[in-house]
Amino acid sequence: MSVSTKPASGFRDFLPADTARREYVFQIIEEVYQSYGFERLDTPCVERLDTLMGKYGEEGDQLIFKILQRGEKLQRALESESPSDTDLADMGLRYDLTVPLARVYAQNRNSLPRYFKRYQIAPVWRADRPQRGRFREFVQCDVDVVGSKSMTVEAEVTAALAQILKRLEFQGFRIHLNHRGVLRALISVSGIGADKETDALVAIDKLDKVGIDGVQKELDERGISAASSATLLGILSKFKNPSDAEFSNENTLSLLEEHLGSDEDGRQALSELSELLSLAKSGPAAASLKLDPFLARGLSYYTGPIFEIRSDDFSGSLGGGGRYDGLIGMFMKEDVPACGFSLGVERILVLLEERQQLQIPSANADVMVALWDADSAPECIKLAHELRASSLRVDIYNDFDKYKKQFAYADSRNIPFVAILGPNELANSVVSVKNLKTGEQSEVARREVAAFIKG
Amino acid sequence: MSVSTKPASGFRDFLPADTARREYVFQIIEEVYQSYGFERLDTPCVERLDTLMGKYGEEGDQLIFKILQRGEKLQRALESESPSDTDLADMGLRYDLTVPLARVYAQNRNSLPRYFKRYQIAPVWRADRPQRGRFREFVQCDVDVVGSKSMTVEAEVTAALAQILKRLEFQGFRIHLNHRGVLRALISVSGIGADKETDALVAIDKLDKVGIDGVQKELDERGISAASSATLLGILSKFKNPSDAEFSNENTLSLLEEHLGSDEDGRQALSELSELLSLAKSGPAAASLKLDPFLARGLSYYTGPIFEIRSDDFSGSLGGGGRYDGLIGMFMKEDVPACGFSLGVERILVLLEERQQLQIPSANADVMVALWDADSAPECIKLAHELRASSLRVDIYNDFDKYKKQFAYADSRNIPFVAILGPNELANSVVSVKNLKTGEQSEVARREVAAFIKG
């Protein structure tokens, strides 16, 4: 057989042991989101290409999996001179869950509540080069509130995230917090023009990876004047490598105030951050929120507070989000304020597995019914139905093999009990129940088998 | 704004009221599957094109959504002379869940148990022309057992399906049951050669829609001799429009025995059907299994028993399945017996909605915390966290509006209670709780609010 049986490159199969862990984690996330009043939204995996294109920057657009046109339309596209990928394709796999949310909100605005609080736990696709730990299909767990500019939104979203990580027994994570207005003000007071704002943002975003010197180089290359970069880096360097004790959120706030207080954007941003910290003070995120003037986050659609989950014991982030008051306006005539977070659940799953954290409830059956021969098989199947009626998960063995072989099979499946109803048991109106942990075999009255197994 | 905000043609958004119903139904299906010892498998939405092509017949291959090549590979494909869609695309969206199962089984055979009993509840895609009730993305709920030829497999699979339909409060459904060996024998004893078997099957499959005359015409057109079609239709007409009482499964079996008993395939098939009926006799499917010598089912990969769910009060089927002992052999060196069923859950959801069947638990919050002003907001958020810690689902209102407006909002969201913690309440160490059903407002000690709401 020449056909490969592997999944496509960058895609994964999840066998039952994996899906049990994954579903367990998804369910915890879903429970927490629901406890905050978020409701589930499902959007199609496939979107019109014009919905997706132009929302993620040039690099993002390249990473959208595009779906080939069909029939006549494909023929027509092929007949045109040097057709591009957007001629050959009409739809694409969604790249994230935020742009579909914006589209759905614009489409259903009139039937949606004033505050649209939705979560979505679903796969997204990116045509990235596959590598260790980077997949082309992965699940995102998003939570967003559309319809309010209030910092209570940020407080609730960050609290829900912290609560999820606590339920998943993560220790010592931090929610890094910054504000696009702080970054804009930083850039402005450094004398960098609005036309170079994005360039400066991209450079600052790399501080963690390339250090002050690297950022300096990047700013030079992007044509920002020496005087401006000196001012910008001068301010930023005051926050670099401080001891935690010295740099409480209060200290960071007042240091920012000192440098940015002259800028209106800066004052507004600092007042929002201060309000958010006060609203979060007594909630699950209180101890985790960490003001970080370096945090920039790549996506261009953020407008207000931005956040990202990090921890010392893993590199990179477990998810990020922020306020994007302009994105929905790309789909309708007016801007609608919105803020959300996307939890990188694949990464969380890898960490949980590495740490063997969490007691995942067994996905296996509670009992297996053995088979002896064709004559007794119908009664064995009937017994299985009886036990299911008592809320047990019941597997049956499907062929007529020696009991020893059947016990070994059940044991290999981690099924704790085997129920036997052969000719002897039928003659005596009992069921033999084998406990595979103790090896003990007991004769039990048929109507008492379920209770016996439940212990 | 010129961008459409509709989903792509043939695709659907599910707003929270829809997702609540859908998730509730999926959960019932999942619970029943698990109670039969089935475990969850997840496979990627995207498969290599060579995994998908050639498994569904020519018509099926046409309906696979194909994913455009990227970068250099796309350029190379475009430079070739008259590139076909399989040159331009390397992957596709899965068309069903059975072929991916076969691939996964072949790939993981050594680590899988002797009986691989898996379910999968997941979307599939077909590039069909969208029309009322026919979508291009829809969820299938599949259950399959790989690794046994025993009719206990068919008995368990059909029992699980019947149990799901009962839990969903469907009345009067039937599981139509036939066997590919019965059809093969019918064709053989009618003197139709093996080379015309598929043609005859396709014709028989249309009996329900086009009647005996239509099938006659189809057989003629497909070059089957007049004598052979007369024999075939002569046998089939004995089963046409019988009263139910006259045509019990026993009667159908003996009539088939009478006509097909001379054929070895036929004898084997009838003995398997008879065994299945006996194994199912005391289970949830017992009253629903209905032998139907006309049932053919389109897919070419079926080899043994085949089934389909129907009912008088809707046209078409709610799902179908059967034994396919040859499919996995397309992916590995040896054949592995397998049997499964695919439940058409989208159709079930439409019917449930039309009938307003099932009490779906509310997806809304149990209580909404109102906001008064910036000073009291942190304490309101804290109250929300306290109530969540008591396992309540708690929404908060996000802006500072008049309470009357906030009550109206909560009421429109079907949230039964509003908790108020304004300056007065804070001064008196109480919380005001408004019951929106009765209109009654009560002052409650803060630590008793959760208990008060839970009633």
Automatic annotation (TrEMBL), chains A, B:
Keywords: Aminoacyl-tRNA synthetase, ATP-binding, Cytoplasm, Ligase, Nucleotide-binding, Protein biosynthesis. Residues 22-361 form the Aminoacyl-transfer RNA synthetases class-II family profile domain. Signal peptide: none annotated. It catalyses: tRNA(His) + L-histidine + ATP = L-histidyl-tRNA(His) + AMP + diphosphate + H(+). It is found in: Cytoplasm. Its EC number is 6.1.1.21. Its main location: cytoplasm. It comes from the Bacteria. The keyword Ligase applies. GO terms for molecular function: ATP binding; histidine-tRNA ligase activity. The keyword Manganese does not apply. PROSITE patterns: AA_TRNA_LIGASE_II. L-histidine binds at residues 96-98, 126, 140, 144, 297, 301-302. Pfam families: HGTP_anticodon, tRNA-synt_His. It is an enzyme of class 6 (ligase). GO terms for biological process: histidyl-tRNA aminoacylation. One of its GO terms (cellular component) is cytoplasm. Belongs to the class-II aminoacyl-tRNA synthetase family. Homodimer. HAMAP family: His_tRNA_synth. This is Histidine--tRNA ligase. It comes from Microvenator marinus.
